[in-house]
């Protein structure tokens, strides 16, 4: 499939071997990788949503329940054991729409409610916070993501933002919760922050946050992709009077054309920082005959550190994805590698600086069989997570059939992720807790409530 021509298309890109601005690292699969496993007690119905935390927990959901698993906790057959199961009650909405995990929190959105659990409590899951978010039936949620700073179990404060993508011009709603070591529980702000999508008539179906090493305590970015294939990026600033949108920019992934809905779709979109500290979006696209969407691409975000205004700049098509059918992908936290699933293969690309600025990829890249059962719906419920350490990458992917692929890669001399010098990020001390669960209040109070914890089988 040919790439869409343009000023940043592959035909205009040159090798960056002469003037690379950051070091690249060779990667190779370790012995025994990849490996395939199955989730224990998995539903016979395909999942509608999967999510993986950076600490190796997996949540997989059907319209009626969510099942939680922990990597490394296996039964005698080698299946990953189920840790807990959450079943939707009739007063929590008609069906589950999506789930998200952070280091400590599990967020579930139904067609009307937001439910949040602290899932790493050693005593199991307790009662969740519950908040009706559909504004009396006038707004319906579709997607959810969590950004968490700090962690329960350490001796300082932590906080989390939850982004819920939904219907219409009030496309993304933000909710914040905080953890205090003094009260030993999570609490939440009563008000939501609404991020507008001008002209949007459908749903925001993908949401995401800028990475920790970009974010400051008072400012961060939120990403959203609509059903009509518009990408939105909002800068959010938090002040003493409350949080609000600082700037907004958007980008038309369909290049101003309208194509049949079955001809292709955006499968993932992720904000990341390249090793020099510049913000980019990686966007994967599953293209079929007749598709007018851009092929899988990178796009830089221009930012002003005077007023934090943002603009999408020229996109860069990635020709390394030869079939065009990219079912999902992500970028390593250090910004050195892209990991994506194309057809039945996992692809690992190494990012480097292009001669004329921006990013491109090394010609040499890794491919291996993904060992997943993607089914007729492709990667509809596919999730990919990467954990990095000194000289090593650990990749985990899960599909809607309950199959799990894990792979370990050796990356010689790759150091741990470092904060870029160009964007100062204050270090937030971190702190303790033992199973706190916060409750969002619909009134004025922002105090949380604690519940006894018990696992649901």
UniProtKB/TrEMBL annotation:
Residues 439-457 have a biased composition (Polar residues). Residues 429-457 are annotated as: Disordered. It comes from the Eukaryota. This is WD40-repeat-containing domain protein.
């Amino acid at each position: 499939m040919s790439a869409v021509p343009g000023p940043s298309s592959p035909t205009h890109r040159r090798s960056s071997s002469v003037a690379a601005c950051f070091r690249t690292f060779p990667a190779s699969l370790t012995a025994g990788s990849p490996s395939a496993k199955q989730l224990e007690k998995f539903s016979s119905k395909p999942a509608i949503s999967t999510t993986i935390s950076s600490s190796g927990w997996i949540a997989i959901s059907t319209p009626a329940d969510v099942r939680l698993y922990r990597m490394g906790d296996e039964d005698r057959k080698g299946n990953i054991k189920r840790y807990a199961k959450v079943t939707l009650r009739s007063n929590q909405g008609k069906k589950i729409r999506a789930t998200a995990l952070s280091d400590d929190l599990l967020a579930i959105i139904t067609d009307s409610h937001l439910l949040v659990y602290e899932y790493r409590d050693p005593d199991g899951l307790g009662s969740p916070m519950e908040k009706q978010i559909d504004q009396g039936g006038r707004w319906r949620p579709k997607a959810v993501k969590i950004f968490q700073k700090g962690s329960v179990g350490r001796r300082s404060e932590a906080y989390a933002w939850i982004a819920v993508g939904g219907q219409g011009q009030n496309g993304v709603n933000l909710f914040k919760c905080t953890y205090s070591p003094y009260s030993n529980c999570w609490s939440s702000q009563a008000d939501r922050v609404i991020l507008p999508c001008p002209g949007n008539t459908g749903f925001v179906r993908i949401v995401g946050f800028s990475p920790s090493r970009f974010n400051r305590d008072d400012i961060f970015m939120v990403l959203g992709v609509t059903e009509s294939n518009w990408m939105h990026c909002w800068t959010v600033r938090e002040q003493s009077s409350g949080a609000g949108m600082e700037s907004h920019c958007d980008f038309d992934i369909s290049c101003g054309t309208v194509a049949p809905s079955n001809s292709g779709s955006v499968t993932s979109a992720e904000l990341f920082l390249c090793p020099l500290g510049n913000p980019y979006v990686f966007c994967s696209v599953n293209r079929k005959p007749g598709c007018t969407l851009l092929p899988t691409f990178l796009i830089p975000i221009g930012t002003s550190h005077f007023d934090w205004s943002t603009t999408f700049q020229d996109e860069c098509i990635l020709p390394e994805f030869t079939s065009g059918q990219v079912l999902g992908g992500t970028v390593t936290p250090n910004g050195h590698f892209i990991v994506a699933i194309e057809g039945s293969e996992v692809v690992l690309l190494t990012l480097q600086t292009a001669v004329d600025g921006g990013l491109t990829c090394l010609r040499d890249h890794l491919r291996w069989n993904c060992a997943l059962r993607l089914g007729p719906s492709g990667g509809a419920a596919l999730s990919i997570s990467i954990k990095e350490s000194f000289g090593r990458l650990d990749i985990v992917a899960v599909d809607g059939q309950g199959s799990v692929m894990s792979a370990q890669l050796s990356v010689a001399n790759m150091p741990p992720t470092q904060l870029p010098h160009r964007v100062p990020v204050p270090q937030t001390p971190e702190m303790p807790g033992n199973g706190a669960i916060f409750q969002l209040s619909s009134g004025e109070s922002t105090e949380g409530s604690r519940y006894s914890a018990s696992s649901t089988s």
